[in-house]
Amino acid sequence: xxxxxxxxxxxxxxxxxRGCPVGxxxxxxxxxxxxxxxxxxxxxxxxxxDLKRDEPGLIELxxxxxxxxxxxxSEQLTGYEPQLSHRSDIAFExxxxxxxxxxAALALAEQLVQAPAKLLISRQKYxxxxxALACPA
Length: 137
Prior knowledge:
Blueprint: E1 10-16, H1 22-35, E2 43-49, H2 56-65, E3 69-72, H3 74-78, H4 89-95, H5 100-113, E4 117-126, E5 129-136
Parallel strand pairs: 1-2, 2-3
Antiparallel strand pairs: 1-5, 4-5
Helix pairs in contact: 1-2
């Protein structure tokens, strides 16, 4: 327990198309963590947009990893637009925000640490899903 307080709070934001299989989400997560040499146990929570509240793949991934999954409204996510590495007009048309994964990761990291957050891994896309990882700034 000695370094638990010094370990950064790492959170993953996820966006996905309807019906995206949990295997796709897990593959994207594993690939991103491996590429950035981050251990799975360092991830504290998952986040997405509230439109995905009933998305089976996201729910299954959170359950499989035993991690909390938090959802944010597009209004809550819109404020993070200046910090996004990528703005998707398609995402905006469908959700009302320009980047679900990055915005959700930033929103949750800020909520958990009550301080500004930054993207550690900017938007990664794989098949039908996107992922970003945020931590305290």
